[in-house]
Amino acid sequence: xxxxxxxxxxxxxxSITDRxxxxxxxxxxxxxxxxxxxxxxxxxxIREIVACGASLGIRHIKITGGEPLVRKDCCxxxxxxxxxxxxxxxxxxxxxxxxxxxxxxxxxxGIDGINISLDTLERNLYQEITxxxxxxxxxxxxxxxxxxxxxxxxxxxxxxxxxxxxxxAGNWRGLVELARRLPVHVRFIEMMPVGYGKxxxxxxxxxxxxxxxxxxxxxxxxxxxxGFGPAVYYRIPxxxxxxxxxxxxxxxxxxxxxxxxxxxxxxxxxCLCYEDGVDLRALLRDxxxxxxxxxxxxxxxxxNEAEIQRRLKEAMRRVIWEKPAAHCFERPERMxxxxxxxxxxx
Length: 346
Prior knowledge:
Blueprint lengths: L10 E5 L27 H13 L4 E5 L9 H9 L6 E6 L8 H7 L3 E5 L5 H8 L4 H13 L4 E7 L14 H9 L3 E6 L14 H11 L4 E2 L10 E4 L6 E5 L12 E4 L4 E3 L7 E3 H6 L19 H17 L19 H4 L2
Parallel strand pairs: 1-2, 1-10, 2-3, 3-4, 4-5, 5-6, 6-9
Antiparallel strand pairs: 7-8, 8-9, 10-11, 11-12
Helix pairs in contact: 1-2, 1-9, 2-3
C-alpha cells in the first residue's frame, strides 16, 4: 500500500533476536541485557504479521538481528515466510561467523539472498572492530555461498575506525578487490547515528567513491537491478562483482523509502529515527500471561482470532499510512528513538 506521502511500502525488515555472537564497537561493544525468550516473537507470530503485511502490499522481507543465526529456528522461519502468499523474496543479513553450516538449510528453505556484514579484510582491524578473530570463517562462508549460487552482498560501514592520512576510510581497498575475485556486491554504508554509532566519525560514501574512482578510473554506473533497497551500484571493468554505496544522511533518500521495521519484540516502526509505531505483540497475544520462567512462549489458538486479525491489520495499516516523511539524523536533537540498533534491528 502507499503511505500518506505516496510512497509504495513493500519491504519489511524483521529482527528476530537482540542477541549477537560478536561485540562490534559501533553496535554492542560491551554486550546488552538481552530480553527473555518470552518477550521475543515466536515463528508463528512473525509469520502472522508477515501474512498480514502481505495483504497490505509487503512483498520483500529481510531477516535481521542482532545476529539472526544465533536463533536456531532461523532456517525454518525462512521456509515459513516463503510460504506466505504475496511474499516474493526473503533474504537475511548476518555477520557470517555462523553461516557456513547453515548455507544448505537456508538454500533448502528458499532463501533469495544473503547480506554479510564485513567492515574490513585486515585481520587485526577486524578483531579490533568485532572483538573476535573470525575473519577466516567469514571469508570461507562467503566463498561457499558463492559456490552454491547464492546472491551475496557484503555490507561495510563507511567510517573511520582508524585515523589514516589521505584516505576517507582507509580500509576500502581490500573490500573492493573482493568484488574483483568473486561475483559479490560490496556496499559501503554510511554510519547511522544510532546508539554507539553516534560516537563514530561517519564517512560520506560519495567521497569514498571518489577515492575508488581515482584508483579505478573505469568505474561506471551499473543500472542493473540489484535489489529493493536504496543502494546505488557501480561496475569496474574486469570485476566479477559490483560496488555499491548507501548514503542515508548525505544522500538522503527518504522520498523513495519503501520500508518498515519490526523489532524482535514485535514493535512495528515506520522510521529508524523515531520511536513512533505500534506494539503488535500485545495485539497478537491478547492478554496472554507470561509462562513459568523456564518455559518458552507457545503458540495458543485464540478464540477471538478474527478480531485479533482485524486489529492487527488496522494497526499495521496505520503505521504504514503514517510513515514519517523523512528522518532527522542531521538534527539529532529532534530524534526520539533512544534504543540501539541491536534492540531495533539492523
